[in-house]
Amino acid sequence: MRKRNIVLWALTPVAVALVLSGCGSGSDNDLAVDNNAQSCSVVSSSGSAVVVGSGVAGDPAAPEAASGYRLGYKAKQSSKYMVVANTPLATKAGCDVLKAGGTAVDAAVAVQAVLGLVEPQSSTLAGSAFMMYYDANTKKVVAYDGRETAPAAANGYYLVRQDQGDASSAAPVPSARRSGRSIGVPGVMRMLDMAHKEHGKLGWEKLFDEGIQLATNGYRIPGRMGDAIKGNAASLALDANAVSAFFNADGTPKATGTVTTNLPYAQTLRTLASGGANAMYSGPLAEAIVAKAAQAVGDDAAKTPITPSLMTVNDLKNYQAKKREPVCTTYRASYYVCTMSPPSSGGIAIAQALGILENFDLSKYGPTNPTNEGGVPSVMGVHLVSEAERLAYADRDKYVADTDFIPLPGKGVSTMLDKAYLKQRAALIQPDGKSLGTASAGALGDVPLGVDKTVERGTTHFSIVDAYGNVVSMTSTVESSMGSFHMVGGFLLTNQLTDFSAQPADGAGVPIANRVAPGKRPRSTMAPTLVFKGTEPGDFVMATGSPGGGTIIQYVLKTVVGAVDWNLDAQQATSLVNFGATNSVTTNVDGANTSLDLTGLIDGLKAKGHTVNNAAQSSGVSTIMRVNRNGQTKLEGGVDPRREGIVLGDGAL
After folding, report:
1. Cα(360)–Cα(111) distance, rounded to whole angstroms?
2. What is the pLDDT of residue 37?
3. Residues 335, 200, 185: CA angle, nearest 5 degrees
4. What b-and-e string marks burial along 583-600, b requiring 16 or more CB atoms within 10 Å of the CB?
5. Which of 45, 395, 425, 499 lies 20 to 30 Å from 414 when distance is taken between CA atoms?
């Protein structure tokens, strides 16, 4: 019976319901409604249209192995709108909103509502996110900041001492991550609410419908979610709510393919739908979040001690999402790239790396045979990109944090992106010589800050273009897989505060920019990115971004370079072997696609002094490009073959 419910839901005319629901900032008669019955479906091997989530043959929502590299992906094309997300059900939710005449922001709300249910290892309603938004009417780009904050009671020792004022105090238990100390004041729903009020057309209350239906009627656990439940079972077992959501009655973890519901999650979505984002920041839901974060013992038989959070209801009440000036730069005088501003470090690092790379003719060093999964990158291409990243990471590690607390050196972003400065940095690279190995941060002024190499993890990304020409590139996160393992209202609380430096100063006592402080946002590497032709916004080229923690910079930069320097299509640029480096001697060359022979690339890099890590990586890049194919302007989408996502748009793709 449950399987039948899933099928019936998938065939429900959600788009019609959305159109009839009313509007956010428009009226019904100005909605760009798509009446094509096949839109937001996929084309099966037999050529017929398949509804995502229907359970019939060819349904991309049917769970498969969580890992590996899926061969044979080709760029998908549509003419009006498109959405790419890392799980099929979330992509479908966003596409239905676009089909009903919703904007890219409307669709982003629907996508996030489903991701928190079917991808809890990467995203949550109580998480954080950054959004880059392009308004086609005004031709302006806005950066929305929904990053978590530290509680007002936190100080620099919040992650390393149970009693922050006592230097001899023991560390939080069972660990900083599993304790309440890792839980930040959530921001994603406040951010989406802000963006929706400014750019939404459909009623907020109806954007949660598909999430509610899935949580109520059931869905099949995707492969990555199933692996995450199994891999984190011991930590999840300390929380009774997590056990109820993720374990069978006999105490075993629910496996991939299991049909499951999440009724508390459905109720949370109803609460948000009717009460708006405020429902998470005051009232019963806010009180439940604070109580869960303050849990002092586990729900397990041993009553495992858990160091509680110091978050209060006032912390939630006082949280503010923010609009930021995006980090924008020209690239080769031909493109205008806009990406996320601090507290993200990813945007500045990507912009710096591009500013370094424009001093080299990368077009000569593209991959061989790009029609084969993006091809095999060239030794020189990987060498130059990796060296540029080393230099960018060096500045990032020293200078970038929450600029509301720690200013950037000099004149800020303009100092770090100064073309003359980046040309000097480029001169440190030896194209025909050896790798830098590690680089020193640039001399950008007397800023006494210690270097912070805190490791980040997790996240998910999605890209959306609506029928009005507006664009969203949004990265959302729970931090590590399954966050802090604290669960309330059917959703997980993050361990986002572990993105702060655990220590407030380095070994020499020099303060670290990314140290904990009350109300401060931890440094992130999330880097949703938009690319335009020319020297200002207007002629949209590309929306992209990726999960991957600290390696997001590498994944996004590879995709942008692949598209604009090597003329790869959206799928080729996304499928292309991931490569790059943090500021270390190790250069990453993704071994996930075992069908490619990377021996020559690896040997060539070693000859240039690179220490190569050839382990499989899982990025999750999603890309939408506007291209001219056969004399027609089209949207072209690519989804990472290392993930479970799909591309949907107008027409069956």
Report:
1. 39
2. 95
3. 85
4. beeebbbbbbbeebebee
5. 499
| Identified catalytic residue from 149, 329, 330, 459 | 459
When pLDDT is cut at 50, 70 and 90, the band that residue 18 belongs to is very low
Alpha-helix residue ranges (DSSP H) falling in 130-257: 188-199, 209-217, 223-231, 233-236, 240-246
- Number of neighbouring beta carbons within 10 Å of residue 37: 13
pLDDT value for 96 = 98
459 is catalytic: yes
511 forms bridges with which residues in the sheet?
Answer: 505
Q: What percent of the chain has pLDDT over 90?
A: 85
Are 573 and 623 a contacting pair, CB within 8 Å?
yes
Q: Which of 151, 126, 153, 146 is nearest to 280 (CA)?
A: 126
Contacts of 190 (CB under 8 A, 6+ apart): 146, 277, 280, 281, 319, 320, 321
Q: Indicate the pairing of strand 586-589 with strand 611-613.
A: parallel
Contacts of 411 (CB under 8 A, 6+ apart): none
Q: What is the amino acid identity at position 391?
A: L
Q: Residue 470 has what DSSP assignment?
A: -
The pLDDT, as a whole number, for residue 629 is 85
**What DSSP element (H or E) covers 78?**
strand 76-78
3 state DSSP class of 56:
coil
Residue 269 has pLDDT above 50, yes or no: yes
Parallel, antiparallel, or unpaired: how do β-strands 82-85 and 128-135 relate? unpaired
**Residue 367 identity:** P
> Could you tell me the sign of the dihedral formed by the alpha carbons of 102, 104, 109, 115, in that order?
positive
Regarding pTM above 0.85, the answer is yes
Taking CA atoms, 332 is separated from 214, 337, 339, 358, in Å, by: 46, 11, 17, 6
The token pair that represents 373 in the structure block: 């999964």
